[in-house]
């Protein structure tokens, strides 16, 4: 079994030729290469945050599971932090704070990486607002783009600057940096904004969880701001039919999108985008971009 060294840490890697995406023939080696390549821009969005993984050890068409606790055999150099659950019990979770941990996780076929909207050392403070736009039957990511522009302008009315990324699935995510918010206040605010947009645009927007009502509309999922929820991290690969990526996009791209494929990016596309544009979501990491929620 080969040994690799990343950032001064040595660990075994295995089954590099295993095909994780049968439709495209994409292997674990290609997944590891992608994460190693984008690590410089991805890690700032992960560092200091507890993560959950979607693991697909037999490939995306085989068994998959959502893992919150550290995998068996987690090396002692991997940062692990405790969180207190609603029940009062504590639970350990991994933090992907460095490139070695990112590559180690990829070697375990941790295809997807999801983060909370708070830092591990401040679990009572939400520093991110997230709105997940999900197209209902008859709608696509292009329709999500139109709603995203409405949301961007609505958040700006409250002094919040937002950034967009594809979900890597069917929709879009909008994120804004927050200052001095609790997970509950962030969730309440996101719900209020989603309901307001639904009231203004009832033919195209829905904020209610009822799936049967989503046909022909874009669902604004505000619930991912709850303290217990996680969201796909910027630049994470998704365990879909092909190795799509949750990819930061510019507002110009959002406004110009006319077909779903205009916002469909895979591990083959993203490194080139970064080489040209850098991290299109870098502003989210700037402390000066954080805004306060109304009334706080």
Automatic annotation (TrEMBL):
Residue stretches making up the DNA ligase D polymerase domain: 27-280
Superkingdom as given in the UniProt entry: Bacteria
PANTHER family: BIFUNCTIONAL NON-HOMOLOGOUS END JOINING PROTEIN LIGD (PTHR42705)
InterPro entries: LigD_pol_dom (IPR014145), MtLigD_Pol-like (IPR033649), NHEJ_LigD (IPR052171)
Name of the protein in its database record: Bifunctional non-homologous end joining protein LigD
Any Pfam family hit: LigD_Prim-Pol
């Amino acid at each position: 079994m080969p040994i690799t060294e990343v950032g001064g840490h040595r660990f075994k890697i295995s089954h590099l030729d295993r095909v994780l995406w049968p439709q495209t023939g994409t292997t674990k080696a290609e997944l590891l290469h992608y994460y190693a390549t984008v690590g410089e821009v991805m890690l700032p969005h992960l560092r200091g945050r507890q993560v959950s993984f979607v693991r697909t050890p037999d490939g995306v068409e085989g068994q998959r599971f959502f893992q919150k606790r550290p995998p068996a055999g987690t090396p002692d150099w991997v940062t692990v932090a405790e969180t207190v659950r609603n029940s009062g019990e504590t639970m350990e979770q991994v933090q992907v704070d460095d490139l070695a941990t990112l590559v180690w996780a990829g070697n375990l076929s941790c295809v997807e990486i999801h983060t909370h909207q708070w830092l591990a050392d401040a679990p009572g403070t939400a520093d991110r607002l997230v709105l997940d736009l999900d197209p209902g039957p008859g709608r696509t990511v292009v329709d999500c783009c139109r709603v995203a522009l409405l949301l961007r302008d609505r958040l700006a009315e409250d002094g919040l600057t937002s950034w967009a990324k594809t979900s890597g699935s069917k929709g879009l995510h909008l994120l804004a940096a927050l200052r001095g918010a609790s997970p509950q206040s962030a969730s309440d605010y996101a719900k209020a904004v989603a309901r307001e947009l639904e009231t203004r645009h009832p033919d195209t927007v829905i904020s209610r969880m009822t799936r049967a009502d989503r046909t022909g509309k874009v669902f604004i999922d505000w619930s991912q701001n709850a303290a217990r929820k996680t969201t796909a991290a910027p630049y994470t690969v998704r365990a879909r039919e092909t190795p799509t990526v949750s990819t930061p996009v510019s507002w110009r791209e959002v406004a110009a999108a006319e077909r779903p494929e205009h916002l469909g990016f895979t591990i083959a596309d993203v490194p080139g985008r970064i080489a040209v544009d850098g991290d299109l979501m870098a502003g989210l990491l700037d402390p000066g971009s954080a805004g306060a929620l109304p009334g706080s």
